[in-house]
């Protein structure tokens, strides 16, 4: 997948400009940015729900059907009579028309996918009754069952406890390699992804800095991206991105919210 010089406006407002990066099969990429930085808009552009006003998104094989998508968290009603395995099976049908697979073959595919995401022990429970981490596993299985070449996930780690976060990141890291699926995962905190990311796309001010974490998450690079002085501080294996002068005028251009550029554990 390749995003080339994409420029995206919504309702006449420029949201993303000059975004450029590529993902190869099996690569794990973090799409990092504070709230409102345009992560969802970029994912929706890749999916084809939003058209860039200039630039383009190129997909290997040219097929949007080859993209798996886990949307931002939505509430699943505990009373909804849908089991985890039913949701995974629904992923089989996607854009497929014509004669469905025989039921035994469907069942085998669903079982294999549930196993791959380690969800077999709760496969027959209602989806709305599962924990956040378990639901994410099921949504990932739903998105991966047709073996897409690219998997997009919008803030899949939000509202999960630390152990579930680590489990989901490790799972996605493993599956991206096993299935040779490129993974693009959006998050406002890069820290849980540091050991997994091959590449980072860091969004701020509608622009992106991309490359390895080492190359991108540096004081000079992020200061240039934000347009004012940013300090990147590494402490206890974590990275904090801090506005050097939170009271500075430059922050007004970011929406005036110092918290939006400070990543606190
Ligand atoms: N349909 C729309 N029309 C106009 N502006 C929009 C629309 N959708 C989003 N925006 C604006 O675009 C900007 C980027 O939003 P987006 O949802 O892509 O950010 P995000 O990084 O995913 O943030 P969050 O983590 O809060 O969802 C925001 O300022 C938002 O208000």
TrEMBL record:
SUPFAM superfamilies: P-loop containing nucleoside triphosphate hydrolases
GO terms, molecular function: ATP binding; ATP hydrolysis activity
Keyword NAD included in the entry's annotation: no
Residue ranges annotated for the ABC transporter domain, each copy included: 1-230
Record's keyword terms, sorted: ATP-binding, Ion transport, Nucleotide-binding, Transport, Zinc, Zinc transport
Pfam families registered for this protein in UniProt: ABC_tran (PF00005)
The keyword Secreted is annotated on this UniProt entry: no
GO biological process assignments: zinc ion transport
Protein family: Belongs to the ABC transporter superfamily.
Entry protein name: ABC transporter ATP-binding protein
Organism of provenance: Aureimonas ureilytica
């Amino acid at each position: 997948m390749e995003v080339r010089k994409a420029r995206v406006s919504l309702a006449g407002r420029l949201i993303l400009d000059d975004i450029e990066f590529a993902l190869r099969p099996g690569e794990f990429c973090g799409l990092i940015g504070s709230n409102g930085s345009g992560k969802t808009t970029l994912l929706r552009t890749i999916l084809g729900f939003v058209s860039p006003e200039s630039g383009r998104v190129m997909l290997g094989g040219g097929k949007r059907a080859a993209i798996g998508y886990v949307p931002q968290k939505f509430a699943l009603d505990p009373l909804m009579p849908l089991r985890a395995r039913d949701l995974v099976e629904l992923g089989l049908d996607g854009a497929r028309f014509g004669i469905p697979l025989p039921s035994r073959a469907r069942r085998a595919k669903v079982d294999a996918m549930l196993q791959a995401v380690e969800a077999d022990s709760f496969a027959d429970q209602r989806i709305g009754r599962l924990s956040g981490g378990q639901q994410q596993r099921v949504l990932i299985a739903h998105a991966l069952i047709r073996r897409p070449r690219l998997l997009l996930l919008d803030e899949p780690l939000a509202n999960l406890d630390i152990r579930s976060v680590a489990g989901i990141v490790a799972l996605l890291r493993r599956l991206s390699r096993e299935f040779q699926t490129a993974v693009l995962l959006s998050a406002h905190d890069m820290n849980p992804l540091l050991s997994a990311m091959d590449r980072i796309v860091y969004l701020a001010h509608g622009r992106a800095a991309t490359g390895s974490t080492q190359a991108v998450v540096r004081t000079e690079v992020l200061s240039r991206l934000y347009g004012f002085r940013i300090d990147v501080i590494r402490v206890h294996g974590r990275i904090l991105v801090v506005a050097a002068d939170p009271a500075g005028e430059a922050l007004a251009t970011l929406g005036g919210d110092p918290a939006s550029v400070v990543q606190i554990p």
